[in-house]
Description:
CATH architecture of the largest domain: 3-Layer(aba) Sandwich
Number of strands: 10
Number of domains: 2
Strand content: 5-15%
Number of helices: 16
Distance between the termini: 45 Å
Structural class: alpha/beta
Strand order of the largest sheet: 2-1-3-4
CATH topology of the largest domain: Rossmann fold
Shape: elongated
Amino acid sequence: MTSVLESIYSEEYAVVDVRTPAEYEKGHIVGAVNIPLFTNEERADVGTRYVKQSREEAIRRGLELVGPRLAGYVEQARSLDKPLVVYCWRGGMRSSSMSWLFSTSGLASQTIPRGYKGFRKAAAERLALPWQWRVVAGPTGSGKTSFLRTLAEGGEQVIDLEGLANHKGSSFGGIMQPAQPTTEHMMNRIHHAMHGFDVSRPVWVEDESRTIGRVHLPETMFESMRVAPRQILETPLEMRITNLVAEYGQLPLDELIAAFDRIREKLGGDRTKRAIEAVQLGDMHAAVEIALDYYDRTYAFTAKRFEV
Length: 308
């Protein structure tokens, strides 16, 4: 299984997910191309026939559905122009049938034993190894992402959790970001980002709460991060405001206003009103300064748990 799993990280192979679009959207091997054997509705129909009638009836219905599409599957796979690694949920009939079809059509193809379920088990086991986590902490705007980028450029092992989550971790963090992955797929992204990492060397991450936007971090990883050594960035307030103005100042005003509205209860009605007025006047420095009053208090509260 290891050799096949290793091939999913090689650019020499094309990874093909033959599960339904819904299964693929929930979570998939990073970089995999979805060539679904069945649509979401067809998969449900075949599964119902399997449970309520018989395996033979389910196979008959499956063949009836996919028969006219076999040539199309092959053409999609051939267009990838690489040897194929094919998987379904448990490495069963869907992946073996599609891999057989591809091989019969002259394409090099292999399956992942135990399929996506096996991959997820291996990914969880690897994430649970005794990684040497190092957490970069500091109040909002202190330059944690830039610090991590510098570490990565210097050859350190770094994971950009906010980049993988498509969210910067605050009420403002989702503005102009792509859709977030599911929590399931977030683990896949983390596992992929850690490919090739050495467990004996430090792995640097930014200090995060249990969730980034709507995405939950893997539990074993989060608990390890909580007790990991911390590098706290001490950045002057004016520099933090400058950093945040540069980062958020060009974003759509209506979305910035909506973000302030989302924290109105915690920021307070008067300060929210003043922040929104500052945004409308183009005074991002004042708006950021007001926002930091809330975020700094939140940071100070959470930082207490690390005090000796």
